[in-house]
Amino acid sequence: MSGKAPKRKGDGYERELAKYFNEKVFDGRDTVQRAPLSGGGAVRSSGGSDLKNTPYIYVEAKRTEKFQIHQSMKQVEENIQISESKDIPVVITRRNRTDTGDSLCVLKLDDFLSIYKLLIEKE
After folding, report:
1. H/E element holding 58?
2. pTM of whole model > 0.90?
């Protein structure tokens, strides 16, 4: 796939994720949105997350058949550094013909354990 198609696919996935977050986390309210100009290198210059209004997490969305896990995590960490965010870097990815809810979320073990510890302590 070349040209504008991959960007269009990525932009669509970001909108899809925003809608899914709104349905599953924010009771259908239009809280999470795709960040304007998030794809195609614009993020790198501004350091912005692909999704807006996702407290505590900094989302990098990847819709690809050939997911490059370490490269994707490096990208989100660089964007966090540029933006000086304190949020947890999360890469969310899915392949074609996969439901949104079956997307994979990638985060570092220490970040996962911090979240997991909060859940355990809440009980």
Report:
1. strand 57-63
2. no
